[in-house]
């Protein structure tokens, strides 16, 4: 496939600004929430539920910045490592009073020395995979795009766009052995199909290739690369578009079912 994406179509926008526009533009995460449970989607949309910023999420977010945007952006976005014990020359542990006092005055997310080391190990894991390095060698990180899709204003923030290789999404995982099962569980194919379809709205309908780069958050920090098949993306796109049609109906009638309103039959063989 001959792919030539003009990277200038992608806007540069801080994550906070992007997420602040969620009330006006449908994102892949909002659509996945709706597909899981319309009531869940609605509760988040009206501010009754917030996405929790867990330690695992913080590690994933920091790894994205370190690996995709580079050391300088990473160092500017996070407070790294904590204070050093003058007696030993080593950083205070994350559970110590000295670390807690240091963290309290930081004006940005805090990463302990242990977390910084973990992220560097993950970066080394990605660097060991030639296919991942090739995909991430040239392109633009965290590019934002907005377009109307299925009659709905939508927005995407793509981890990485390679002008000739298409969309590259970066994932962190506990064990690469089970990554394909995790991809099905979390609906990565639907997320990628949404990205690809919204991007197609501004590149003359072209459906570009999609790759996933995944790295482990523990030893041996393996990194793997997957190309999402065109058939998988086509099926996911049809599912997404059907879900958007249902979402528009729910908005029109202001009805948000859980999906479990009827009695189900449990048949255990």
Percent of sequence in beta strands: 15-25%
The strand count comes to: 8
What's the SSE pattern? EHHHHHEHEHHEEEHHEEH
Instruction: Choose one word for the global shape.
Output: globular
Structural class: alpha/beta
CATH class identity of the largest domain: Alpha Beta
The strand line-up of the biggest sheet is 1-4-5-6-7-8
* Mean residue pLDDT: 94
Query: How many structural domains?
Result: 2
Distance from N terminus to C terminus (CA atoms, Å) equals 47 Å
Helix content: 40-55%
Give the biggest sheet: 6 strands, mixed
Query: The CATH topology of the largest domain is what?
Result: Lambda Exonuclease, Chain A
What labels would you give this structure?
alpha/beta; Lambda Exonuclease, Chain A; two-stranded parallel sheet; 11 helices; about 270 residues; 2 domains; six-stranded mixed β-sheet; about 20% strand
Report on this model:
This protein has 269 residues and is α/β, with parallel strands linked by helices. It folds into 2 domains: 1-51 and 139-269, Lambda Exonuclease, Chain A, CATH 3.90.320.10; 52-127, no CATH class. The protein is built from 11 helices and 8 strands. The strands form 2 sheets. The chain has a 6-stranded mixed β-sheet with strand order 1-4-5-6-7-8, sandwiched between helices. β4 and β5 form a beta hairpin. α2 (28-36) packs across α3, α4 (55-69) crosses α7 (113-127) and α10 packs across α11. The relative contact order is 0.16. The mean pLDDT is 94.
């Amino acid at each position: 496939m001959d792919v030539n994406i003009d990277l200038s179509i992608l806007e540069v926008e801080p994550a906070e600004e992007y997420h602040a526009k969620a009330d006006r533009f449908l994102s892949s995460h909002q659509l996945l929430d709706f597909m899981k449970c319309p009531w869940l989607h609605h509760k988040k949309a009206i501010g009754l539920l917030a996405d929790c910023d867990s330690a695992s999420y913080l590690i994933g977010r920091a790894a994205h910045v370190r690996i995709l945007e580079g050391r300088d952006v990473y160092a500017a976005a996070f407070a790294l490592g904590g204070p050093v014990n003058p007696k030993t020359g080593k950083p205070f542990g994350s559970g110590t009073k000295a670390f807690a006092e240091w963290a309290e005055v930081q004006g940005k997310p805090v990463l302990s020395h242990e977390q910084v080391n973990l992220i560097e190990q993950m970066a080394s894991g990605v660097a060991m995979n030639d296919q991942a390095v090739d995909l991430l060698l040239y392109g633009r990180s965290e590019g934002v795009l907005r377009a109307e899709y299925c009659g709905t204003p939508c927005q995407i923030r793509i981890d990485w766009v390679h002008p000739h290789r298409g969309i590259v999404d970066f994932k962190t995982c506990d064990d690469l052995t089970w990554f394909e099962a995790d991809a099905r569980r979390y609906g990565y194919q639907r997320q990628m199909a949404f990205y690809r379809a919204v991007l197609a709205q501004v590149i003359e309908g072209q459906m570009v290739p999609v790759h996933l780069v995944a790295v482990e958050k523990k030893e041996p920090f393996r990194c793997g690369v997957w190309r999402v098949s065109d058939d998988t993306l086509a099926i996911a796109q049809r599912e997404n578009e059907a879900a958007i049609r249902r979402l528009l109906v729910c908005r029109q009638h202001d009805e948000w079912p859980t999906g479990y309103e009827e009695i189900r039959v449990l048949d255990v063989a």
